[in-house]
Design goal:
By secondary structure, the chain is an alpha/beta fold. The protein has one domain: 3-Layer(aba) Sandwich (Rossmann fold). The protein has seven helices and five strands, in the order βαβαβαββαααα. Helix 1 packs across helix 5 and helix 4 crosses helix 5. It is globular and about 55 Å long. It starts with a strand and ends with a helix.
Length: 221
Amino acid sequence: MKDDFTIYFGGSLFNHKDLSGNALLAEYIDKCSDNKYRCCLPQNVEQHHTTARDIRNEVIAKLIECDLGLFNFDGTELDAGVVVEFMLAKFLDLPAVILRSDFRTCGEKEIGGEDWNFMCSFYPRTRIVKFNAIISYQEAVEESKTLKETFDIYYSRVARMVIESLDAVRTEKPLLKGDQKTLETLYQWALTFPGSGINKLLSNPSFVKQILAAKIKKGLA
Protein backbone atom coordinates (compact mmCIF):
# COMPACT_ATOMS: atom_id res chain seq x y z
CA MET A 1 0.00 0.00 0.00
CA LYS A 2 1.41 3.37 -0.99
CA ASP A 3 2.07 6.04 1.60
CA ASP A 4 -0.40 8.82 2.04
CA PHE A 5 0.43 12.14 3.64
CA THR A 6 -1.49 14.58 5.82
CA ILE A 7 -1.20 18.24 4.84
CA TYR A 8 -1.79 21.03 7.31
CA PHE A 9 -3.51 23.73 5.25
CA GLY A 10 -2.84 27.13 6.82
CA GLY A 11 -4.85 30.03 5.43
CA SER A 12 -7.09 32.91 6.40
CA LEU A 13 -10.56 31.78 7.46
CA PHE A 14 -12.39 34.91 8.47
CA ASN A 15 -14.87 35.32 5.61
CA HIS A 16 -16.90 33.18 3.22
CA LYS A 17 -14.40 33.62 0.36
CA ASP A 18 -11.50 32.35 2.46
CA LEU A 19 -13.49 29.42 3.81
CA SER A 20 -14.85 28.39 0.42
CA GLY A 21 -11.52 28.82 -1.36
CA ASN A 22 -9.65 26.78 1.24
CA ALA A 23 -12.24 23.99 1.12
CA LEU A 24 -12.33 23.84 -2.69
CA LEU A 25 -8.55 23.72 -3.09
CA ALA A 26 -8.22 21.10 -0.35
CA GLU A 27 -10.80 18.91 -2.08
CA TYR A 28 -9.02 19.21 -5.43
CA ILE A 29 -5.63 18.42 -3.88
CA ASP A 30 -7.12 15.27 -2.40
CA LYS A 31 -8.80 14.33 -5.68
CA CYS A 32 -5.97 15.21 -8.09
CA SER A 33 -3.43 13.32 -5.97
CA ASP A 34 -5.66 10.21 -5.81
CA ASN A 35 -5.85 10.80 -2.05
CA LYS A 36 -2.09 10.59 -1.63
CA TYR A 37 -2.31 14.02 -0.02
CA ARG A 38 -5.12 14.58 2.48
CA CYS A 39 -5.58 18.15 3.59
CA CYS A 40 -6.37 19.06 7.16
CA LEU A 41 -8.23 22.37 7.29
CA PRO A 42 -8.18 24.19 10.63
CA GLN A 43 -11.66 25.46 9.78
CA ASN A 44 -12.87 21.85 9.83
CA VAL A 45 -11.16 20.84 13.07
CA GLU A 46 -13.86 19.94 15.54
CA GLN A 47 -13.78 22.58 18.24
CA HIS A 48 -15.41 21.54 21.49
CA HIS A 49 -14.20 24.71 23.18
CA THR A 50 -15.05 28.31 22.55
CA THR A 51 -12.09 30.17 24.02
CA ALA A 52 -9.38 31.53 21.76
CA ARG A 53 -6.73 29.76 23.83
CA ASP A 54 -8.31 26.34 23.46
CA ILE A 55 -8.86 26.77 19.72
CA ARG A 56 -5.23 27.85 19.32
CA ASN A 57 -4.04 24.79 21.23
CA GLU A 58 -6.08 22.38 19.10
CA VAL A 59 -4.73 23.96 15.91
CA ILE A 60 -1.09 23.77 17.10
CA ALA A 61 -1.51 20.11 18.07
CA LYS A 62 -2.97 19.30 14.65
CA LEU A 63 -0.10 21.07 12.84
CA ILE A 64 2.47 19.11 14.85
CA GLU A 65 0.72 15.88 13.95
CA CYS A 66 0.59 16.50 10.17
CA ASP A 67 3.25 15.32 7.71
CA LEU A 68 3.64 18.48 5.60
CA GLY A 69 2.35 22.02 5.51
CA LEU A 70 0.65 24.20 2.89
CA PHE A 71 0.53 27.89 3.74
CA ASN A 72 -1.43 30.57 1.91
CA PHE A 73 0.67 33.73 1.69
CA ASP A 74 -1.85 35.99 -0.08
CA GLY A 75 -2.43 39.62 0.80
CA THR A 76 -0.38 42.81 0.97
CA GLU A 77 0.22 41.83 4.60
CA LEU A 78 0.40 38.15 5.49
CA ASP A 79 -2.18 36.74 7.87
CA ALA A 80 -0.53 36.78 11.31
CA GLY A 81 -1.90 33.37 12.27
CA VAL A 82 -0.55 31.77 9.10
CA VAL A 83 2.88 33.27 9.76
CA VAL A 84 2.93 31.74 13.25
CA GLU A 85 1.85 28.38 11.83
CA PHE A 86 4.51 28.52 9.12
CA MET A 87 7.27 29.36 11.60
CA LEU A 88 6.21 26.53 13.90
CA ALA A 89 6.34 24.18 10.90
CA LYS A 90 9.87 25.35 10.11
CA PHE A 91 10.85 25.02 13.76
CA LEU A 92 9.90 21.32 13.42
CA ASP A 93 11.49 20.99 9.97
CA LEU A 94 8.18 20.07 8.36
CA PRO A 95 8.36 20.09 4.54
CA ALA A 96 6.29 23.06 3.44
CA VAL A 97 4.78 24.65 0.36
CA ILE A 98 3.97 28.36 0.26
CA LEU A 99 1.08 29.28 -2.05
CA ARG A 100 0.59 32.79 -3.38
CA SER A 101 -2.03 33.73 -5.96
CA ASP A 102 -2.03 37.46 -5.19
CA PHE A 103 -0.48 39.47 -8.03
CA ARG A 104 0.37 42.41 -5.78
CA THR A 105 4.03 42.81 -4.83
CA CYS A 106 5.92 44.59 -2.06
CA GLY A 107 9.29 46.28 -1.63
CA GLU A 108 11.05 43.07 -0.60
CA LYS A 109 11.38 42.18 -4.29
CA GLU A 110 13.85 45.02 -4.78
CA ILE A 111 16.36 43.46 -2.37
CA GLY A 112 16.11 39.89 -3.61
CA GLY A 113 13.13 38.79 -1.53
CA GLU A 114 9.72 37.42 -2.37
CA ASP A 115 6.33 39.14 -2.42
CA TRP A 116 6.20 39.24 1.37
CA ASN A 117 8.36 40.20 4.34
CA PHE A 118 11.79 38.61 3.92
CA MET A 119 11.75 37.27 7.49
CA CYS A 120 9.35 34.61 6.17
CA SER A 121 11.72 33.57 3.38
CA PHE A 122 14.82 31.44 2.74
CA TYR A 123 13.94 28.47 4.96
CA PRO A 124 15.01 24.92 4.01
CA ARG A 125 12.59 22.25 2.82
CA THR A 126 10.23 24.92 1.49
CA ARG A 127 8.85 25.28 -2.03
CA ILE A 128 6.92 28.23 -3.44
CA VAL A 129 3.96 28.09 -5.82
CA LYS A 130 3.06 31.45 -7.31
CA PHE A 131 0.47 32.29 -9.92
CA ASN A 132 -1.74 35.22 -10.88
CA ALA A 133 -5.23 34.37 -9.62
CA ILE A 134 -7.18 36.73 -11.87
CA ILE A 135 -5.38 35.68 -15.06
CA SER A 136 -5.73 31.99 -14.22
CA TYR A 137 -9.40 32.47 -13.44
CA GLN A 138 -10.09 34.34 -16.68
CA GLU A 139 -8.33 31.62 -18.68
CA ALA A 140 -10.55 29.02 -17.03
CA VAL A 141 -13.65 31.10 -17.82
CA GLU A 142 -12.69 31.25 -21.50
CA GLU A 143 -12.31 27.47 -21.62
CA SER A 144 -15.62 26.65 -19.93
CA LYS A 145 -19.34 27.05 -20.42
CA THR A 146 -20.54 26.90 -16.83
CA LEU A 147 -19.31 28.08 -13.45
CA LYS A 148 -18.88 24.47 -12.39
CA GLU A 149 -16.57 23.82 -15.35
CA THR A 150 -14.66 27.03 -14.58
CA PHE A 151 -14.01 25.95 -11.00
CA ASP A 152 -13.05 22.45 -12.11
CA ILE A 153 -10.45 23.76 -14.57
CA TYR A 154 -9.18 26.46 -12.24
CA TYR A 155 -8.82 24.41 -9.06
CA SER A 156 -7.49 21.34 -10.87
CA ARG A 157 -4.64 23.43 -12.27
CA VAL A 158 -3.81 25.02 -8.93
CA ALA A 159 -3.99 21.65 -7.17
CA ARG A 160 -1.60 20.05 -9.66
CA MET A 161 0.94 22.85 -9.11
CA VAL A 162 0.70 22.34 -5.36
CA ILE A 163 0.97 18.54 -5.69
CA GLU A 164 4.08 18.86 -7.84
CA SER A 165 5.73 20.98 -5.15
CA LEU A 166 4.59 18.66 -2.36
CA ASP A 167 6.12 15.74 -4.28
CA ALA A 168 9.38 17.65 -4.62
CA VAL A 169 9.70 19.08 -1.11
CA ARG A 170 9.02 15.81 0.70
CA THR A 171 12.03 14.22 -1.03
CA GLU A 172 14.42 16.84 0.35
CA LYS A 173 16.72 15.56 3.08
CA PRO A 174 15.51 16.25 6.64
CA LEU A 175 17.79 18.46 8.70
CA LEU A 176 17.91 15.96 11.58
CA LYS A 177 17.55 12.71 9.63
CA GLY A 178 18.15 9.69 11.83
CA ASP A 179 18.52 11.63 15.06
CA GLN A 180 15.34 10.46 16.76
CA LYS A 181 16.41 11.55 20.23
CA THR A 182 16.91 15.15 19.10
CA LEU A 183 13.65 15.04 17.16
CA GLU A 184 11.76 13.86 20.22
CA THR A 185 13.26 16.69 22.27
CA LEU A 186 12.32 19.18 19.54
CA TYR A 187 8.73 17.98 19.35
CA GLN A 188 8.35 17.88 23.11
CA TRP A 189 9.58 21.46 23.28
CA ALA A 190 7.05 22.44 20.58
CA LEU A 191 4.36 21.09 22.90
CA THR A 192 5.82 22.96 25.85
CA PHE A 193 6.88 26.46 24.84
CA PRO A 194 3.40 27.64 23.70
CA GLY A 195 2.17 27.10 27.28
CA SER A 196 -1.48 27.81 28.11
CA GLY A 197 -2.36 24.17 28.71
CA ILE A 198 -1.58 22.73 25.31
CA ASN A 199 -0.01 19.67 26.95
CA LYS A 200 -3.38 18.83 28.53
CA LEU A 201 -4.70 17.93 25.06
CA LEU A 202 -2.26 15.05 24.84
CA SER A 203 -3.50 12.29 27.09
CA ASN A 204 -1.28 9.71 25.38
CA PRO A 205 2.31 10.01 26.74
CA SER A 206 3.68 8.32 23.61
CA PHE A 207 2.08 10.88 21.26
CA VAL A 208 5.42 12.26 20.07
CA LYS A 209 7.02 8.84 19.63
CA GLN A 210 4.09 7.63 17.55
CA ILE A 211 3.92 10.57 15.17
CA LEU A 212 7.69 10.65 14.74
CA ALA A 213 7.80 6.92 14.01
CA ALA A 214 5.20 7.43 11.28
CA LYS A 215 7.10 10.39 9.79
CA ILE A 216 10.43 8.57 9.88
CA LYS A 217 8.86 5.59 8.13
CA LYS A 218 7.69 7.93 5.34
CA GLY A 219 11.15 9.50 5.06
CA LEU A 220 9.94 12.87 6.33
CA ALA A 221 11.99 13.11 9.54
